[in-house]
Structure formats: C-alpha cells, structure tokens
Amino acid sequence: xxxxxxxxxxxxxxxxxxxxxxxxxxxxxxxxxxxxxxxxxxxxxxxxxxxxxxxxxxxxxxxxxxxxxxxxxxxxxxxxxxxxxxxxxxxxxxxxxxxxxxxxxxxxxxxxxxxxxxxxxxxxxxxxxxxxxxxxxxxxxxxxxxxxxxxxxxxxxxxxxxxxxxxxxxxxxxxxxxxxxxxxxxxxxxxxxxxxxxxxxxxxxxxxxxxxxxxxxxxxxxxxxxxxxxxxxxxxxxxxxxxxxxxxxxxxxxxxxxxxxxxxxxxxxxxxxxxxxxxxxxx
Length: 283
Hints:
By secondary structure, this protein is an alpha+beta fold. It has 2 domains: 2-166, Sandwich (Jelly Rolls), CATH 2.60.120.10; 170-270, Arc Repressor Mutant, subunit A, CATH 1.10.10.60. It is built from 10 helices and 9 strands. Strands 1-2-9-4-7 form a 5-stranded antiparallel sheet. It has a 4-stranded antiparallel sheet with strand order 3-8-5-6, with no helix packed on it.
C-alpha cells in the first residue's frame, strides 16, 4: 500500500493539483460515505480491486463494482464499500480548472462503476502518477496533466472499442443473457456456446475478451451473487438457498461462498445491515 499526501498544499496549482492519493489501500468491512453538495470535496478517481458495491447517483440501487473504475465529479456524494468482508481500492483526489474542463467533456459517465474488463488499466496510470508525485518535492502540473490526458483517452478509447465489439457481436450478449437466466442450473459450456453459435473453445476466448472473465467463472459469480441476495431472507435455510442457485451440495456452496466473500453464508447473513434510508432533504 502507498499513500501520498501533498506536503505543500499552499503551493497548489490552480490548473491541476492532486492533494492526496492511495494505492491498494486496505479497508475493514463496512461502508464509506462522504462528499456531497457543500462538502468542497474535489474530483475523485477510484478503482476497486475486490467485491464492492456503489450506491447509484439516484440512490435507488446498489451497483456491483468489483474491478471497476469510477469517477466522481466535484462535491459528488460517494457511498461504497463491502459490509461483509475487508476490501481494497486505489484512489486519487484531483482539483483544478483543467480537470473540470476534462470532466465537462462528457467522455465518461460520472458516478457509476465503469467496466474496463479488469482493474489493470486504471491502476497502471494511478501508479505512474503516484511515482511521479512521490519522486518530486513539488508537483509538476505539466507532467500531471500529461499523464491524466493519456489516462483519460486510454480509458475512453477502451470504452469505444468495447462498445463497438458489443454492437458487432450480439451473439455473446445472447450467451451472457442465457447464463444470467439459467444461473440456477449447473453450467454447461457446450450448451452455452451454442447460444452464440460458436465452438466451445472459441466461445471461451471471445467471452473472456468481451466480459473480462471466462464464461464458467461468470456463471459462478452470478450464482453466488444471487445466493448472497437470497440470504437476506432469514426464513430460508442455507441448504435451500444453495438449491435455489443450482448447488446440490450445500457444503460445496458454503465453501465457494466463503472463498468469494470471506465469510460463511451464516456469518454473511448475520452481518447484513438494514437497507440504506435516504437522508432527509436539506433546507
């Protein structure tokens, strides 16, 4: 883990300035809530390295953000974390006229997790920026701006290519939807590949390229994620939850669940918190 705090904020550039950042900062189980109108919180770039949820800007739903990248605008409200297990993330705060112009260009969605296939791309640039900051007595705004420009355009280019791939190969979307609607059944590679009209080997390669994980792993994540949701119903026994998400063996379900979330199903159930109640409207 590396943490950077600007030792001389009085000398900050009004053009682009990073007051603080952290790489792979470990956090205990729980949710973080900060920012919001009037907070004077700067723009935040963040990437999550494990299972985390983020509250959508409309505060109506929680969005999965594992290995996702997110950008919050100045004074945006941030609510994220994992109440069931420890988690880690990398982040940086940035302010200045240049970054505000950058965000106003609408090249990326703000306040929602962005799937780049993995956390590798944003973490690579954050590490470069951190190395630059830690190697200088005072920030070089030209260098920081240059790194941000490359970072920003590489992310935008990746998203553009990803959208093009999704448009030109709807067969993989069809297979993905098949997995999501049959999560309660044992995964069968040949049957799933048939939905995309591809051979199993070619299907595995294309699916991994487009969605960042092999199809079998994607199916397993869907089953465990649905299992975590069902555990909120305390009238269901763990073996019933296991059966509902396609596991004939409750012990095997529990073992995979612990590996995924760091807790047994019963421990996860005990640590569930009440649903978030929106705060009262400000005067």
